[in-house]
Design brief:
Radius of gyration: 17 Å
Structural class: alpha/beta
Order of helices and strands: EHEHEHEHEHEHHHE
Largest sheet: 7 strands, parallel
Shape: globular
Strand order of the largest sheet: 3-2-1-4-5-6-7
Helix content: 40-55%
Strand content: 15-25%
Oligomer: single chain
Length: 251
């Protein structure tokens, strides 16, 4: 595979499973040095990258804790001396409930991880990118950042806010060679979707039936979009929220 990211460094939050894991591996395959991050130890992604000749480290981080995020970026610089890319992927779906039944704790936890976590990450990533002349940030939103979904008010609010924050930061740094975009995945075969469906085949069938392409997406398909957005091929793309949903939001 072409080493288009040789000598470049990326932080991937939420790297243990699904989209984060696939994205970390995709960047390592293209020569990037990868800083894996999650709130639990991530041995599997790390060993997969190293066993295949890649360069990676793991830094434990709760993105809702500003000190943890500050340390994540500091550890990245201490190890690799630079930061070029970031995939701010960590997020939770929260506990399903209507707006009137959503608990304060559920609201706060979901917003703190999904939205404040993305803000904390960019707050500390951008200064390091500026030191090397620029960089690319991709935030993981969701199609729930583009349209409404019943029963998960905190999740939908947080993901809409991530899209808005992405556009704001893209504008702020457009002339400083920092591009910022969001990916908005649809139903992707990940542990989060398994939790959402309760691994009930009938529920999954209903979700698939709503997709024009008639199938669930794969984590690797999101990873390849993140790779593209960080590459020179996407050099004129910033401030965008890109739906990767099999056509769902076109309906």
């Amino acid at each position: 595979m072409e080493q288009i990211f040789k000598d470049k460094v990326i932080i991937v939050t939420g790297s243990t499973f699904g989209i984060g894991k696939s994205t970390a591996i995709a960047f390592a395959q293209r020569g990037a040095k990868v800083v894996l991050s999650d709130w639990t130890q991530d041995e599997d992604t790390l060993s997969t990258i190293i066993e295949n000749g890649g360069d990676a480290i793991f830094v434990k981080c709760d993105v809702s804790d500003e000190n943890d995020v500050k340390n994540l970026v500091a550890e990245t610089i201490a190890k690799y001396g630079r930061l070029d890319f970031a995939f701010n992927n960590a997020g939770i779906e929260g506990t399903p409930a209507s707006a009137t039944e959503c608990s304060n704790d559920n609201w706060d936890k979901t917003i703190n991880i999904n939205l404040k976590g993305v803000w904390y990450c960019m707050k500390y990533q951008i200064p390091e990118m500026l030191k090397v002349g620029g960089g690319v940030i991709v935030n993981n939103a969701s199609i729930a950042g583009l349209v409404g979904f019943g029963g998960v008010p905190a999740y939908v609010a947080s993901k809409h806010a991530v899209v808005g924050l992405t556009k704001n930061v893209a504008l702020d740094y457009a002339k400083q060679n920092i591009r910022v975009n969001a990916v908005c995945p649809g139903v992707i075969h990940t542990p989060m979707v398994d939790r959402f469906t309760g691994q009930d085949p009938k529920v999954l069938e209903q979700l698939v039936a709503a997709k024009p392409m008639g199938r669930v997406g794969q984590p690797e398909e999101i990873a390849e979009t993140v790779v593209f957005l960080c590459s020179n091929a996407a050099s004129f793309i910033t401030g965008q929220a890109i739906a990767i949903d099999g056509g769902w939001t076109t309906q």
